[in-house]
Design goal:
InterPro entries: JetB
Order of helices and strands: HHHEHHEEHHEHHEHH
Protein name: DUF4194 domain-containing protein
Largest sheet: 3 strands, antiparallel
Organism: Cellvibrio japonicus (strain Ueda107)
Number of strands: 5
Oligomer: single chain
Strand order of the largest sheet: 1-3-2
Pfam families: DUF4194
Radius of gyration: 31 Å
Structural class: mainly alpha
Strand content: 5-15%
């Protein structure tokens, strides 16, 4: 007598499964057939898959950081673009700075709509302080490239250089320690966006080349102009208060 394992494994002694199977009326419909899994031969090459996955993970590839993956993307732009196209993503290429990055494809109607609907990309909204620091860092980066040449690496800036520039727009916190903490926290937040590196032993960061593509220069200039306007009334009020105190002192004398 055949056992249960004979039925499962189809070993000798097991009755014919087709003979024991119940008969059902399927009419003219043939039984469904199993489709074979996609063979490795027909799949996208693993190196291209690795490069595309790295782009989707971080949103960019720098030649200085990932030279092999960067070279794969730049030598197979059409293939990588084909992988990204069904996802409504496009490839941005900046060979001078050694950078490839993702861009979201949008039609004109979508660009005019402020609602963000891409299922794979989360819009990173920066607050006022972060946006101000991005504008300052971008100015430093462009100035560095003008002096050293476009694509020159190691655009460094120290925390001590950033503190007085933020004070102009955000005001003085009244403590050097608090000022330093504010800048370091903002830099750490921008590091999460891939805009700067970690602080080195001398409290400096490297400005990443993606900052050149992050925001429209006109928008950044408008932000700086608006901040200057906001800072001007505060300065005028402080000057007026000081003048009033001087008049009171004169009258008292």
């Amino acid at each position: 007598m055949a056992g249960i394992f004979d039925h499962i494994t189809g070993q000798p002694g097991a009755p014919n499964a087709a003979e024991d199977a119940p008969i059902t009326d399927v009419g003219d419909h043939a039984p469904p057939t199993e489709t074979s899994p996609l063979s490795d031969v027909s799949r996208t090459h693993k190196r291209l898959r690795d490069a595309a996955q790295e782009l989707l993970k971080y949103g960019l590839l720098e030649e200085a950081q990932k030279p092999n993956l960067y070279r794969i993307v730049t030598t197979h732009v059409e293939e990588v673009s084909t992988i990204l196209e069904p996802l409504d993503l496009a490839l941005g290429l900046d060979e001078v700075r050694g950078l490839v990055y993702l861009r979201v494809r949008q039609d004109e109607a979508a660009e005019q709509d402020d609602d963000w609907a891409h299922p794979l990309v989360r819009r990173q909204r920066l607050n006022l302080e972060q946006s101000l620091l991005v504008a300052i860092l971008r100015q430093h980066f462009i100035a560095y490239e003008q002096e050293s040449g476009t694509g020159a690496g190691e655009a460094l800036i120290a925390v001590d250089e950033l503190i007085p520039q933020l004070q102009v727009y955000l005001g003085d916190l009244g403590s050097d320690a608090r000022e330093r903490t504010r800048v370091i926290q903002l830099l750490d937040q921008l590091k999460g966006h891939g805009l700067v590196s970690s602080l080195d032993a001398h409290e400096r960061v490297t400005i990443r080349p993606i900052i050149a593509h992050l925001a429209n220069p006109e928008s950044l200039q408008a932000l700086l102009a608006w901040l200057r306007e906001q800072a001007a009334p505060s300065s005028d009020a402080a000057d007026g208060k000081a003048a009033g105190e001087e008049d009171n002192e004169d009258n008292a004398e």
